[in-house]
Amino acid sequence: MARRILHVVSNVSHYADPSDPTGLWLSELTHAWHVFDARGFEQRLVSPKGGFTPLEPRALKWPLADASAKAWLHDPARMALLADTARPDDIDPASFDAVYFTGGHAVMWDFPDDPGLQRITREIFERGGIVSAVCHGYCGLLNTRLSDGTLLVAGRRVTGFSWREEVLAGVAKKMPYNAEQAMKDRGARYERALLPFVPHVVVDGRLVTGQNPQSAKATARRVAELL
């Protein structure tokens, strides 16, 4: 049986200001997708509301749009996947070996408090599967509780887009909250690389997190190794 990966993407298309667009940071999906695809894993996309997933415009421009992202943009079949994602209610967690939360600032709004995503994450983790996230995708793990009522991230080592990187990227003032601090407030043992914008992955048992877009490929490779 082929391993099955569930990618989580956002439905949010803008920051607090509706005229300021955001969305999925495409390479965070494409880099992981190619890693898993090369190993013959089956993959599916889910979003909080299902349906269309908007893309972060900044990630589609030079130098951030690499060959992987460009290839996806020019592949009608792959783009169709982003136009018609599943809803959490469509997903049976028992049929997936791992969940992978993609990033982009959009997820800060629709990932943290979605009960469907929390259910999927909890059931995959408690069945012995892998929970993973890259960059802002870790916002999807902030409020997920296990069956015993404890927070999944409490006491566990994690990483994700750092507040320093928000400041250096010039977007800190747009943030609805400080995700790094929110993780620490929940008892997570947050870690980051010494230098910003370099690949950094943290593995704590079956919890795998990557710090930034540059970490997507390495994060997926660690998930694949665990599987």
TrEMBL record:
Keywords: Lyase, Stress response. CDD domains: GATase1_Hsp31_like. Pfam families: DJ-1_PfpI (PF01965). GO terms for biological process: methylglyoxal catabolic process to D-lactate via S-lactoyl-glutathione. GO terms for cellular component: cytoplasm. The keyword Lyase applies. One of its GO terms (molecular function) is glyoxalase III activity. InterPro entries: Class_I_gatase-like, DJ-1/PfpI, Prot/Nucl_acid_deglycase. Residues 27-225 form the DJ-1/PfpI domain. Belongs to the peptidase C56 family. HSP31-like subfamily. PANTHER family: GLUTATHIONE-INDEPENDENT GLYOXALASE HSP31-RELATED (PTHR48094:SF11), PROTEIN/NUCLEIC ACID DEGLYCASE DJ-1-RELATED (PTHR48094). This is Dimethyl sulfoxide reductase. It comes from Pseudoxanthomonas suwonensis.
